[in-house]
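queue> pop job 88
queue> type: inverse folding (structure -> sequence)
queue> payload:
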C-alpha cells in the first residue's frame, strides 16, 4: 500500500512546488506593476524600493534579494539552534523572486505611465496581482516567503500573536524606508507615498478573497 501512495505523494509535491514558483512569479510581476505607478510599493518591499531609487544601477529585484537575505539572517539570529535548515530554501527562492521582479519591471518599462489616474491604477492592479501570487504561495504550503517567515520566527520565539507582529514588522519596514529616504535625499521622503498605504491595506484583503476562491483556508 505504501508504494501505491508514494507516486501520488511525489506528484503532490511537484504540484506544490509548481504553485510556489508560479506564485513567486506572479508576486514579482505584481511588485513591478505597483512600482511602475511610482506612488510607493508594499511595506515589505519599501526598503528595497528606496535603495533602488538611491542606487538605480542596482535593480529593485536585486535589492529585494539582499533584503530577503537580511530577513533570513534575522530568522537565524532570532531562532538560534531551533532554526530549521529547511528554511534555507528561502535563499534560492529569494533569487527567483528577485529575477521575476526584474522581469516584471522590464515588461512594464514599455508602458507609458504619466497621468496620476493611471499611476494609481497601477498601484491597485499591482496590489491585486501581488495578492494573487501570495495566495498561490500559500496554496503551495511548502515554505513561507522571507518576510512572513521572519514574522513567524519572532512569534515562535517570543510567543506573540502573528497578526500583531506582522503589523509591527510592516510599520518598521516603512519607517526604515522613510528614514533612509530622509538620509539619502536631504530630508525628503521618496518612494513611500499613498501607494504604500494602499498596498498595506488591500493586499491582505485581496489575499483573503483569492484564498476563498481557491477554496482554501489560511
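queue> result:
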Amino acid at each position: 500500500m505504501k508504494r501505491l501512495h508514494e507516486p501520488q505523494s511525489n506528484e503532490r509535491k511537484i504540484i506544490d512546488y509548481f504553485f510556489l514558483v508560479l506564485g513567486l512569479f506572479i508576486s514579482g510581476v505584481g511588485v513591478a506593476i505597483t512600482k511602475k505607478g511610482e506612488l510607493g510599493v508594499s511595506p515589505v518591499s519599501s526598503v528595497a524600493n528606496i535603495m533602488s531609487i538611491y542606487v538605480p544601477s542596482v535593480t529593485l529585484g536585486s535589492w529585494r534579494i539582499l533584503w530577503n537575505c537580511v530577513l533570513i539572517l534575522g530568522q537565524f539570529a532570532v531562532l538560534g539552534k531551533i532554526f530549521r535548515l529547511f528554511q534555507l530554501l528561502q535563499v534560492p527562492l529569494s533569487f527567483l523572486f528577485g529575477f521575476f521582479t526584474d522581469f516584471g519591471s522590464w515588461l512594464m518599462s514599455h508602458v507609458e505611465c504619466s497621468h496620476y489616474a493611471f499611476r494609481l491604477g497601477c498601484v491597485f492592479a499591482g496590489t491585486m496581482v501581488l495578492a494573487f501570487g501570495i495566495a498561490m504561495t500559500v496554496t503551495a504550503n511548502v515554505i513561507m516567503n522571507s518576510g512572513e517567515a521572519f514574522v513567524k520566527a519572532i512569534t515562535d520565539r517570543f510567543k506573540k500573536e502573528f497578526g500583531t507582529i506582522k503589523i509591527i514588522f510592516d510599520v518598521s519596514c516603512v519607517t526604515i524606508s522613510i528614514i533612509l529616504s530622509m538620509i539619502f535625499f536631504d530630508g525628503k521622503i521618496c518612494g513611500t507615498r499613498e501607494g504604500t498605504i494602499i498596498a498595506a491595506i488591500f493586499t491582505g484583503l485581496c489575499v483573503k478573497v483569492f484564498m476563498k476562491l481557491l477554496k482554501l483556508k489560511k
